[in-house]
Automatic annotation (TrEMBL), chains A, B, C, D, E, F, G, H, I, J:
Subunit composition and interactions: Homodecamer.
This protein's name: Muconolactone Delta-isomerase
SUPFAM superfamilies: Dimeric alpha+beta barrel
Listed InterPro entries: Dimeric_a/b-barrel (IPR011008), MLI_dom (IPR026029), Muconolactone_d_Isoase (IPR003464)
Keyword Isomerase: yes
Pathway(s) the chain acts in: Aromatic compound metabolism; beta-ketoadipate pathway; 5-oxo-4,5-dihydro-2-furylacetate from catechol: step 3/3
Catalyzed reaction equations: (S)-muconolactone = (4,5-dihydro-5-oxofuran-2-yl)-acetate
Length: 91, 91, 91, 91, 91, 91, 91, 91, 91, 91
């Protein structure tokens, strides 16, 4: 079951620089880990923004929320989720 | 080169019903035709809306505009285009 | 699997009055039919608006889109779908 | 009398981490306490957001405001309240 | 129980002029009728707009929706309803 | 001369807690003082928000700005002012 | 007493062309008439739009609404009114 | 003197198809005519939209409004004008 | 050449109180200085807001930017500039 | 291949003043460096704002993102990218 997910990252300036680096490294590891399960088949950078456009393929709404909230950058992201269904003209 | 494209269809009520059906059939044919070239790798329906979420893979901005404006429903669509680039954590 | 669905109805003034009544009656029948399956557990009117707030309980995104697009008023509705998951503090 | 209530939580980064945990624990307790009175019949998490979608069932506007403002996270929430009434097609 | 209600009137140009006059006269009568019950204590015109700002005093959400939807201009109005409660500093 | 005034209060988290209490007490006193002059005939709390909906009755735009800017919370409020006039159907 | 008034004109395409010309001529006459009273001291065109930016100098909110609603294009305008007061640094 | 101008074209469906073609041809001629004067140095199509992004180089605000309002599609365009000045880091 | 300029002031709470007073005094002096040149013919306070509505009369876009960016509060203002031209019905 | 790029700069007040100056100087150098390659043919200041309007001419979406994210002010900018194509009436 597919979902379009748009993530915008907003790290507050007041956050400690070292902690930011630690979180970003953890984010990267976790993102790769989820992708390797096949549940995050597409991940693209939005040109000119600290944001991404993603497609998730999961069993349920609950599973999607568990995956998204497991991301180390989750507290600093604004996330929009759009459920997708099969398009009648898709080949 | 990838682009995220969101298309919202708004067919005016005043349009003749038969003409609408003709345009929709032509749209379907043209959508399949473009997908078969490999330039429109993903096409999904947004749940609850007469709208789609798409990924296009083209050589240039010009090519993308030519493809989109060749769609029979183009005059009745509101389209947002977001250029994508490779994400550093994508596998 | 639950979804919050907000439907706003906008019937164009140019639509024939009799056809409007036919569509509304069909909408009412179809709404009752879906509710009786248990897949549309909550349906409320928004005070002061020709709009509703609904909760759907379905197996998948595809099933939700099929139900929503089967509504006779679907072409005249603006629909927003929000996927829900279990809240950790819900009893 | 039913109300649709959407709560978005925004805890400022500058808040002390320990105090945040204390507030969250108190929030959880108070949320359960209100639910047990039957006045907060539905509480769902919005997928991908630190936000919830709720239905409240109270005697009056005043009672709803008292309940909402009694939540420990109230100062850090953006809340939208929509009054609901019976839908003519609800079964 | 008080509610702040903002009504914006948008009568489509395609509506027959005579019918518009009939509806406006009926709206005026119904508005006076409701005010005389004490349930619509305040009704003001927004300067420069075909819109009003109102306060309603009713027993329930259902009663408010019945009153608003009984207005002859209801199909041509965009209405926003905000529930009010007692302010701690109000005298 | 009447004005609809919507005030939304946003006190920054970085403000000293004691100073906040002092300002709120002063705000309360000043709000009561203005109401007693008859120039602030209505003051209601918006349900679920740290915000109010008010009606002011003053001699001029200048007088309204002097009253609003005399409020101790003025620097922390987002205020919208809408001039009102007599509604032709008001009784 | 001064007000900033922004008027955006939207004449529906379905309106008879001759009637449009009649209304525009009447608008022009009425606009000049009001300006000659001194109550509409400034009237400017917004570059690239069928819109104007105006300053009105009137005795009351009621008078402003009477002037604005007397404009022949009033039914086809979206108008925003902002009350102004003396600026402490104005010379 | 430079201005950034964004033009969005919205031709109503109710407009006669032949008249639309006449207007579009006239628009094209007039656009070329203005470009040849050097006052419209840049004109680009926005990908996926019936819209353009333009730079105008004119003597004054008045001249810009005269040029824009001389376009045959002017009544059907939504235009945003942004005045530009020299950037300190431009070479 | 006239421009409508709307300035909204947002001074961050974290700024030192004394420095704020110094900047405000400098702002006042600079505002008077510019007004005395005749290039800032109108300056009004927006009722209920720390904001102003202004008309500037300058030779060019560059001159307007130089004037606005010379204001001591410039770094703390959100400014919208709208170019104006002569209105055909202005007397 | 051309893109319209709008950059809005928002430097947080909490950032050290000296570091801000260092970043701005680096930004200026990098901006000049990119312009000299011919890939950033136009760079204008938006009048009254700490913002710019730019045209980039690059080989691909990836190249554009690399250029934009190489700007020292990138973490403090809100950037909107609009892909452009040739306009049929451009000379």
């Amino acid at each position: 079951m597919l979902y379009y997910v748009a993530m915008q990252i907003n790290i507050p300036e007041t956050l400690d620089a070292e902690r930011v680096e630690t979180i970003k490294a953890a984010e990267r590891s976790r993102a790769i880990e989820i992708q390797e399960t096949g549940k995050w088949p597409h991940l693209w950078r939005v040109v000119g923004q600290y944001a991404n456009v993603s497609i998730f393929d999961v069993e349920s709404n609950d599973e999607l929320h568990q995956l998204l909230s497991s991301l180390p950058l989750f507290p600093y992201m604004s996330i929009q989720v759009t459920p997708l269904s099969r398009h009648p003209a898709a080949i």
